[in-house]
Amino acid sequence: MPRLPRISPIGIPVHVIQRGNNRQACFVSEEDHGAYTGWLKEYSRKYSVEIHAWVMMTNHVHLLCTPRQDGGISQMMQSLGRRYVQYFNSAYRRSGTLWEGRFKSCLVQEERYLLEVYKYIELNPVRAEMVADPGEYTWSSYQVNGLGKISNLCSQHREYLSLGETPQDRQKHYRELFTLHVDNKLLEDIRTNTHKGMALGNDRFKDELATLTGRRLKPKKRGRPVTLFIVYALTSNTVVSLTDL
């Protein structure tokens, strides 16, 4: 069965994960991180993708981005992936694949969810116990969003801009978000929806996207269909109360 094309409407934020094949290391040195960052800047501009948050772990990458042209994210990730594999294989005298197939992604509702995905991404090194504070990790966007580091990669989303009138206010309020980690239920929702290519948001958001794209973006309800259950009950002369349905 052919793979379904990516759903990435213009202007809707997307959480992207790209993992190393068999969870092998994708970044071995500081030079590797620098090379990947440089090409991420190049291709995000080429394909009109705004990058809001990122983290480059040892064996995977998270991005939070918004496309401004059709197919921009897929084109960016394909070009970036190929370019980086060429570099990595040459640098480490290896051959073959580096990435674990296609990248994973999910659409993200701005209200309530977007800033939580920021947190989820930038707290990765803390959850992995690589650092105690997200500001200690160099290869993430926290130093930009939370500490004011200058970056020509980061594009500030309007939800981030709404945190304050000045850069200092926004950074202060952003840091305050990190006093609490991402709720466990939301943590699992982010992971599940990204892995399945669904949407992260409320039912209204998912239904609007389904209407826009013609694709279902939330899991089917579990359980036996009521209509089939009723047919079974009628054909088997079984008495069924409505409270049993």
Rg (CA only): 21 Å
CATH class: Alpha Beta
Return the string of H and E elements. EHEEHEHHHHHHEHH
Distance between the ends: 35 Å
InterPro entries: Transposase_17, Transposase_17_sf
Domain Transposase IS200-like: 9-124
GO biological process, one term: DNA transposition
GO molecular function, one term: transposase activity
Summarize the structure.
With 245 residues, the protein is α+β, with helices and mostly antiparallel strands.
Question: What does this molecule look like?
Answer:
By secondary structure, this protein is α+β, with helices and mostly antiparallel strands. 42% of the residues lie in helices and 12% in strands. It is built from ten helices and five strands. The chain has helices at residues 30-46, 72-91, 114-122, 124-127, 142-145, 158-161, 167-177, 184-196, 203-213, 226-235; strands spanning 14-19, 49-56, 60-67, 104-108, 199-200. The protein has a five-stranded mixed β-sheet, sandwiched between helices. Helix 1 runs antiparallel to helix 2 (72-91). The longest helix has 20 residues, at 72-91. It is globular and about 50 Å long. The protein starts with 13 loop residues before the first strand and ends in a 10-residue tail after the last helix. It holds the Pfam family Y1_Tnp.
